[in-house]
Structure formats: structure tokens, C-alpha cells
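FW: tagging you since you asked about this chain on Friday. Here's the raw sequence from the shared folder, copied in full. Didn't touch anything.
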Amino acid sequence: MISVLLLACSGGNPATTLDGLTVLAMAPEQVEAASGSLANVTVDVANPLEQNVRLALWACPFSACDEGGEIWVGEPFAGHQVALPVSVLVPVAPEATPLTLWGLAIENEHADLLDEFQADSDLRADPGSTLEALPLASYALARRTWTVGMGATAPAAVALNRVPEAAQVDAEVSVLATVTGTLGDEATAWPYTTLGAFAEVSVDVESGQVDVTFVAPPEPGVGRAWIVVEDGNGGTATVSWEVEVVRR
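HL: got it, structure written out here
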């Protein structure tokens, strides 16, 4: 089965271009985590303005955060991307209980808010209401559903077939990646970049091949690109590379 998504007719889809702080993906190492365990979560953050930010994760069972574990906070970092293994305490819960996994990238000067989140379960359950008071460019918030049960299924993984060379301005470049592991019929792949845009993506769930078309901007520059794969079975995988555009 092949899924093809045409994102734009020309010039790439602007929705694939990231011009501010963004939490792109949160990928637990297991599709299902055992109750009461610690599980590593890899987080991809786009930070094109190279802000000094901190990354925080927490998990909320059911519809509230009163039974959630502590907030796990990484060290300050700056750059286009970070992939941090962060331990998230999964509370004891019945088998196959869904969690809400929250990820917050926030400028270091506002990181004292994380202490308030730690102390107040209502803030953890609805962080957006508190963050609204901050400048929009100073934080990025994301959430996803994560199942707690007895299973320990590993998600699919994705890797580039080759690292793309520098692209010329206004050129279109095909980038190929391969997903290993089982893909469900609803598997999707979404490309993002801090420079230029993407125009097309196709996913062959039988072979695991992902083909995306990068559209270079009219001016030279250096940025970063990602492919985020949802494997159709509850897992997430990402791959990232540096994008360079030159004038020849």
C-alpha cells in the first residue's frame, strides 16, 4: 500500500517551514510502557532562532495530572535541534491506560514557571492557560497520547538513505529515507525544515521507503530539516539533517 500526499503545487508548502521554536516530536522508546516504570523519551525541537531554552516533559494519566509524576527538565541548550533521552515516571495504572505526554520548550529566562507546574497539578493538566501570558515566541508546547500497559513494543525507526548534498537556490531535491520495523496502514511521514520548504511526500508502507521533495529558497543559507514518521502502530520516529542552499 502506498500513500502519497501532494503538499503544494509549486514553491513548497509553507506549513512545512518552521520559523520559530517548535516541539516537533516526542518518541517514547516503547509504544507501551509498563506501569510504574521509567521510560526514555526522545524529543526533537526546532530552534531556528537559537534561543537559550530548556525542555520539560511530564505525563498525566486519565483526564487530570493529580496522579502524575514529577516534571523532568533538561539542561539549557541552544541550536536548531536536540534529541534528549528524558525519563518520565509512568504512574501505576490499569493495563492499556492512555496518558497525555506533554513536552514544553521554554526560554531559560521563563523557566521558573516549571517550578509552578511541579507544585500545581491543575497547571500540569492545562499548561496553555499559564503560558498565554508569555510572548508567543518564548515557548513551544506539544502533547501526544501514550499508552500504559504490559506491552513493550518497539516503535519503527527511520534513517536517511544518503545525506543530501548542498542544493542550489530554487532547486527541487528528492530525499529518500527508509523506515525499519512494522508500519501500519495508517503510517504517515511529515517533513519540516527551517530553510526552504517541502512540496511532496510519499510513504510505501510495504517497503518502508519515504520520499520527500525539498524546495530550496531563492537565497543561500543553512538550516535543518526533519522527517517525522508516525508508524501507524502508536510509535514515532524521526531523522534530521543539515540543509545547505548555495548559489552557483
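FW: The domain at 2-17+153-246 is CATH 2.60.40.10 (Immunoglobulin-like).
HL: agreed, and The longest strand covers residues 97-107.
FW: great, closing this out.
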